[in-house]
Amino acid sequence: MTVKEYIMERIENGSMHMTLLDPDKQSAEEAAKIAIKCKDAGTDAFMIGGSTGITSENLDATAVAIREATGLPIIYFPAGPHAIPTKADAMFYMSLVNSKNLDMVIRSQAMASRYVKKIGVETMSMAYIVCEPGMKVGEVGQADLVKRDDIDTAIGYALGCEMMGMEFVYLEAGSGADEPISPEMIKAVKDEISVPLIIGGGISTPEAAVTAKLAGADIIVTGTFVERCIDEHMLRNVIAASKN
Ligand code: 1GP
C-alpha cells in the first residue's frame, strides 16, 4: 500500500492526525520517544521537517528512529532542495504557491526532481498556502500571506491548484501561530475542493482540533504542541479531537 492509499483509506469516512517533528529541535532518539507517545495517543502518521537547521542526515536519522519505534508512515515535509532524506516513506512534493520567491514555487522542485526520482521515494503533490500570521515559514518562504479573513483568495489558490493537478491542499497558519486557520476559511475551502485538505499551525487544544475537524479538515497537523506536551492525557485529547 502506498502512503497516499493509506491516507485516503484513513480519511474516507473522517479525519486523521499527523504529528510533525522537526529534526532541528530534538535528537533522533528524543524524536522516537515523542513518536511512541503520539502513536499510543492515536496519531496516524508522522511528518518530518522544519524551516531551518534541516540536513539530509538529521532527517534520515529521525526517519529511521521513528520507523523503528512506531512502524507508522513517515512523510518528508520539505524546506528546500538542500536536504532530502532517502529513508522517508513518502514526501510531499509541494509548492509554496503564494510565495513571492519563484524558488519556493517551482525552481527548487525543478532542481530536486531528478534526484527524487532516482531515490524512488513516493511523492504526493501538495499546494502549500501560507496564511496569516505565517510565522517562520511565512518569513523564510517569503509568503504573500493570505489574510486571516480573505476567504476568496484562499479558495482561489486551493481550487486553482486542484485544477492544476495538486493532490493535496495545505492551509498553514505557521508553526506556533496564536490562532489557527479560521473555521470559516476551512469550511469555505473544503466546500470548493475535492482533494484532501490539510490544516496546521497553532493547533494546541482539543477545542481547536475539533473546530478544524468539524469545519472540514481531512488531516490535522500538530507540531509545537506535541514537542512541548508533557501531559499525556492532553496529548490523547488533542489527537482524539483531530480524528473521527
Ligand atoms: C507547521 O502546521 C505545522 O508547519 C504545525 O504547526 O507547530 O503550530 O503545530 P504547529
The biggest sheet, with number of strands, parallel, antiparallel or mixed sense and barrel status, is: 8 strands, parallel, barrel
Shape: globular
Q: Structural class of the helix and strand makeup?
A: alpha/beta
Total number of beta strands:
8
Give, in order, the helices and strands: HEHEHEEHEHHEHEHEHH
The radius of gyration computed from the alpha-carbon positions, rounded to a whole number of angstroms, is: 16 Å
Strand order, largest beta sheet: 1-2-3-4-5-6-7-8
> Proportion of β residues?
15-25%
Considering DSSP H and I runs of 4 or more, what fraction of the residues is helical? 40-55%
CATH class: Alpha Beta
Residue windows where pLDDT falls under 50 for at least 5 positions: none
Number of domains: 1
Helix count, per DSSP? 10
**How many angstroms does the end-to-end distance come to?**
22 Å
Mean pLDDT across every amino acid position:
97
Summarize the structure.
The chain is of the alpha/beta class and 244 residues long. It is built from ten helices and eight strands. Strands 1-2-3-4-5-6-7-8 form an eight-stranded parallel barrel, surrounded by eight helices.
Describe the structure in your own words.
The protein has one domain: TIM Barrel. Helices cover 45% and strands 17% of the residues. The protein contains ten helices and eight strands. The protein has an eight-stranded parallel barrel with strand order 1-2-3-4-5-6-7-8, surrounded by eight helices. Helix 2 (28-41) crosses helix 10 and helix 7 runs parallel beside helix 8 (206-215). It starts with a helix and ends with a helix. SN-glycerol-1-phosphate is lined by residues 20, 172, 175-177, 200-203, 221-225.
